[in-house]
């Protein structure tokens, strides 16, 4: 009922950084948990070994954890425009909730027992009035001199104690003043809660409700602080995050192991692609020949594309993109759904003929069908069964559309064939699925390469029906990538410098041989 009460804007922000990370408005778990669970060192078996770990004191560990948490919080405020602090809600039937409820009940029962004594004892009630006074004062800005004087004068604890000792304390009058002051200071969204307070007649439930509304007002003040610092933070966030990560790296020298492995794989993949495209240039030298002419920017872009095919269950995420793992995961899921949608549409148009291609609204209906049946499925569902249902719905929609426009519906044989082709999309090696997948990847690659330009690159053929959705995802993805580059490019340049230098030295050695 009485969390820390910051007394200044600086206090509010420090409390925001240090105490609220468990209740961030995030689709996944809190930032601190994500960092702790995926931190370097928790997957020691499959990470490259660098320098041996040095002993770390508890103080250093706490300081490092606080720095990482603050960096993650600043990042979340900048990247997530809808970021808000929300009250932590304990799971129903959890031990923590049971203990909290028991302690709160005991406290309020004790207050009620004191007030029912003859004469009443006001020790607990006066302490609560003192806490309410501190809360109200914490909401004031420096210019609120008159309100500060009113609160200090009416909620004068020494005077209240004297009145209680002399039997002259009118606690209902004090509570009435508190409710009026809360109504003056609260956000308009809390007017309804303030109105409900005026309808409570019993003093103990009223005190309890007052503290509940004060907690909501603190949350409103914290969110106001977040919105106030966001513009300034956006100007300095890249430098701030880079500085905090550098401090973390100095204390944990192996904190770029996963990044090194990620970029090395991207360089190897790009070298193999170059060799396939230009076999004469790489003949006899393998990937080393392709790696010799690689551009660091191209390797970075290839690495970011690899994040869209990441195995989040079995493989740790690179350290520098860890704070955005949930966002990359969300984009990956959206692209997988777009891949299936685009493939189903291409198969449908091929099977049903050109009559449906130009029919207004047909593609949108099919997209809606696919989206609804795949919504929320993510990674743990039977794709074959979902596609079977999609096949049934698509065939029904195709026949309905053909009949409405005076065309002959699909024969039973063609309908069976269309359902079979749609179910075959479940196979990752399906020819049409691979074609659509390669074109989506090429579009994103082109967009990354030309992200400094204002216009989007042309959408490859076959992706027209999903162009709008694809461009929306691409804009979100490239914005995320560009911000990550802006923060961590010095670290990437250092790692890639070593990787590409090793590739060149291998090539020189083979040439001398």
Can you characterise this structure?
This protein has 513 residues and is mainly alpha-helical. Among the domains are: 95-226, no CATH class; 305-385 and 424-503, no CATH class. 68% of the residues lie in helices and 0% in strands. The chain has helices at residues 9-19, 31-37, 58-79, 95-115, 123-138, 145-154, 157-165, 171-185, 191-197, 203-251, 257-277, 279-282, 287-291, 296-306, 325-352, 362-374, 383-404, 412-424, 431-449, 467-512. The N and C termini lie far apart (76 Å).
For the biggest sheet, the summary is: none
Helicity range: 55-70%
Order of helices and strands: HHHHHHHHHHHHHHHHHHHH
Q: Classify the secondary structure makeup into a structural class.
A: mainly alpha
Poorly predicted regions are: 1-53, 286-292
Can you lay out the helices and strands and say which pair or pack?
Layout lengths: L8 H11 L11 H7 L20 H22 L15 H21 L7 H16 L6 H10 L2 H9 L5 H15 L5 H7 L5 H49 L5 H21 L1 H4 L4 H5 L4 H11 L18 H28 L9 H13 L8 H22 L7 H13 L6 H19 L17 H46 L1
Helix pairs in contact: 1-10, 3-10, 5-10, 8-10, 10-20, 11-14, 11-20, 14-19, 14-20, 15-16, 15-18, 15-19, 15-20, 16-17, 17-18, 19-20
């Amino acid at each position: 009922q009485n969390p820390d009460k910051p007394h200044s804007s600086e206090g509010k922000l420090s409390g925001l950084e240090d105490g609220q990370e468990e209740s961030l408005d995030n689709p996944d778990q809190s930032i601190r948990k994500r960092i702790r669970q995926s931190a370097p060192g928790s997957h020691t078996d499959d990470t490259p070994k660098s320098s041996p770990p040095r002993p770390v004191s508890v103080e250093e560990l706490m300081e490092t954890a606080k720095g990482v948490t603050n960096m993650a919080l600043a990042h979340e405020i900048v990247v997530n425009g809808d970021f808000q602090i929300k009250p932590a809600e304990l799971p129903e039937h959890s031990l923590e909730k049971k203990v909290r409820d028991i302690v709160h009940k005991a406290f309020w029962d004790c207050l009620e027992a004191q007030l029912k004594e003859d004469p009443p004892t006001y020790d607990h009630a006066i302490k609560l009035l003192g806490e309410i006074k501190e809360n109200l004062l914490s909401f004031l800005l420096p210019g609120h001199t008159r309100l500060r004087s009113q609160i200090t004068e009416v909620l004068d604890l020494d005077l209240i104690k004297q009145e209680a000792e002399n039997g002259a304390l009118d606690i209902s009058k004090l509570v009435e003043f508190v409710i009026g002051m809360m109504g003056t200071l609260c956000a308009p969204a809390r007017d309804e809660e303030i109105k409900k307070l005026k309808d409570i007649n019993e003093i103990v439930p009223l005190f309890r409700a007052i503290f509940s509304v004060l907690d909501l007002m603190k949350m409103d003040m914290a969110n106001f602080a977040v919105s106030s610092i966001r513009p300034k933070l956006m100007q300095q966030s890249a430098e701030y995050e880079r500085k905090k990560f550098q401090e973390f790296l100095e204390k944990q020298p192996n904190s770029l192991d996963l990044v090194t492995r990620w970029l090395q794989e991207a360089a190897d993949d790009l070298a193999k692609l170059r060799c396939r495209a230009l076999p004469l240039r790489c003949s006899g030298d393998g990937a080393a020949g392709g790696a010799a002419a690689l551009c660091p920017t191209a390797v970075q872009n290839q690495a970011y594309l690899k994040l869209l095919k990441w195995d989040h269950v079995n493989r740790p995420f690179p350290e520098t993109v860890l704070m955005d793992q949930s966002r990359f995961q969300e984009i990956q899921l959206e692209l997988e759904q777009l891949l299936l949608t685009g493939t189903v549409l291409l198969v449908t148009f091929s099977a049903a003929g050109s009559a449906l291609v130009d029919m207004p609204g047909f593609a949108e209906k099919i997209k809606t069908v696919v989206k609804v049946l795949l919504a929320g499925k993510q990674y743990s569902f039977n794709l074959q069964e979902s596609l079977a249902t999609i096949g049934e719905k698509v065939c029904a929609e195709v026949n309905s559309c053909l009949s409405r426009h005076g065309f002959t519906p699909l024969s039973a044989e063609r309908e069976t064939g269309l359902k079979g082709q749609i179910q075959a999309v479940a196979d990752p090696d399906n020819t049409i699925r691979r074609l659509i997948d390669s074109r989506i990847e090429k579009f994103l690659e082109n967009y990354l390469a030309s992200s400094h330009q204002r216009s989007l690159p042309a959408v490859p053929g076959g992706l027209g029906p999903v162009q709008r959705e694809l461009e929306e995802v691409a804009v979100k993805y490239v914005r995320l990538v560009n911000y990550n580059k802006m923060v961590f490019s010095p670290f990437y340049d250092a790692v890639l410098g070593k990787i590409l230098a090793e590739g060149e030295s291998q090539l020189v050695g083979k040439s001398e041989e």
